[in-house]
Amino acid sequence: MWEPRINITQHQCGIQATTAPTTIDTVIVHLNDIHHSKHYKLLYIEILPVILQKIHFWILIVILIMYQFTYEPTPKNVLLDLMGVNKRHELATSQLRFISDAFDISTNNLRVTLNRLTGTDLITHDGRGVYRLTEKALAKRSFINRWQKNTFHYDKWDSRWLACHLPKGVTRTVRKKSLLVLEWYGFAAGLDHLWVRPNNLTLNHSGITVALTTLGLEEDAHCFVLQDAPDSLVSQWVHRLWDVERLDHEYGALIQSIENSLTTLASKSVNASLSETCRLGGEAIHRLAIDPLLPRAIRPQNKYQQLKNIVHKYDRVGRNIWLEQLKKLGVNA
């Protein structure tokens, strides 16, 4: 799994301070409030062993965060993905029995998941047994599908940076969403309150601002192009913000898994093939979606394009397997 290490302090995050915690467990609770997501895992925390002379502020010294992404065919992912590939972006409750059989998920679990998704404003229900994706869900779907387009320049980068400044004094909930959205677009913490990435995307900074805001970036954040940064600072950003070696290693392993799957799918049962193509294809597409899209100057091995090429092939094979099953689900793909 890709594990870029990002150093973040409370000051960098710009989160309002609270009363000092009294135990390590309390600190962890506060940290989870700051940046809690199923995609994140807290690896290591250093705090001051003694709260500085009873000052009523708690201090984060270092947080190392691992971006952990492994696609899993959970009820939520399965339902959203099936609605996503349907041109009408909908799903009928009459299809739940087949979904249950294909993915070994109980129909009751699927119904509960549909209700929860409705509560999170990702789907709507027309009252007649048909669920549809909302504009919010479609925006996220559009972001995931961007891997199919040429969204960045690998060989051409003029050494300028795209920066996003996050103001102080926001709530944890607002900041948590902003940090997640920025990481989706490959930004990393460059300075206090300043998140950066290479300015090699096909979108200009105005387009990036709109895209980030649509996904949940806070209103008072400011995106701009940064040039003529000190060489020492640029060197730190290039060599420390993204764990390129680990990223390439994990991509290589995923590429090998897909190649192995391509050679064995024909000998497997329909249900096994459905599950395998969903799991591996889903993981690969989501990895491509949240790839930092780095230029050659930072990531010399173009593992992104290698994975993209084999995913296109795997998608064609998977579609042949899924075609008849999708018709049974009422999905017009």
Task: Please tell me about this protein's structure.
By secondary structure, the chain is an alpha+beta fold. It has helices spanning 10-13, 24-34, 75-85, 96-103, 107-119, 135-144, 172-184, 205-215, 231-240, 244-264, 270-289, 303-328, and strands spanning 7-8, 40-46, 62-67, 90-92, 123-125, 130-133, 161-165, 188-191, 194-198, 222-226. The strands form three sheets. A four-stranded antiparallel sheet has the order 8-9-7-10, with helices on one face. Mean pLDDT is 77; it is low at 1-69.
The sequence of SSEs as H and E is EHHEEHEHHEEHEHEEHEHHHH
- As a percent range, the share of helical residues equals 40-55%
Assign the structural class, choosing from mainly alpha, mainly beta, alpha/beta, alpha+beta, or little secondary structure. Answer: alpha+beta
Quaternary status of these chains?
Answer: single chain
Which band does the percent of strand residues land in? 5-15%
In total, how many beta strands? 10
Q: Major sheet: size, sense and barrel closure?
A: 4 strands, antiparallel
| Annotation field: number of helices | 12
Q: Return Rg in Å.
A: 22 Å
Low-confidence stretches: 1-69
Strand order, biggest sheet?
A: 8-9-7-10
CA-CA gap between termini = 30 Å
Mean pLDDT: 77
- What overall geometry do the principal axes of the alpha carbons give? globular
